[in-house]
Amino acid sequence: HLALENLTVLTPNSEQTLVSDLSLQIAPNDRLLIVGASGCGKSSLLRAIAGLWTNGNGQISRPDVNEMLFLPQRPYMLLGSLREQLIYPYNYTRSDETLADILNQVNLGDLPKRFGGWDTVHDWSSVLSLGQQQRLAFARILLSQPAYAMMDEATSALDIDNERYLYTLLAEMHSVYVSVGHRPSLLDYHHK
Fold first, then answer.
1. Which of 9, 24, 36, 124 could be bridged to 40 by S-S, CB 3.0 to 4.6 A?
2. Cβ contacts of residue 54 below 8 Å, gap of 6+?
3. Cβ count within 10 A of residue 99
4. For every one of its 192 residues, what pLDDT tens digit does the chain have, with 9 covering 90 and above?
């Protein structure tokens, strides 16, 4: 269960109020889209919901951190193997077949062959485009199956077809997800 009660979010220097007195309930299977002009505090609100932003006041009830996965616009890429990229941040064991299936689902099935297998180390933020990195981050969601996915413009570098496909996969998981974004197409994948 995720709920906000009288939440106020401030900038890091506390000079500006980004969100004031917001109360909101996010129920199971809810899909919330946060939209607004650049710089209005959308990402800050999402980070507060995820527990990553603490400047402000009010009450946030959120699930255990292990039930949530946060995807920023520019995904965190480890200096490590392809396997390590996929299982981040939980480091669980998955078979190569399972990993290959997940990569196929996000249209990255050629990565193991192109980059020397599952265990070859690369600087993935340098060898993959931002769109590929965002699809790899979605693969992390498909592998970890979090109860809650928090996505900060997580599809901004993708074309509309890939975005639609990934949100369809996400909806099939029956996770709660909260997205920040600018594209009108995102409205199609959210209830609130």
1. 36
2. 48
3. 20
4. 899 999 999 988 888 999 999 999 998 889 999 998 888 889 999 989 888 888 899 999 998 888 999 999 999 999 999 999 999 988 889 999 999 999 999 999 999 999 999 999 999 999 999 999 999 999 999 999 999 999 999 999 999 999 999 999 999 998 899 999 988 899 999 999
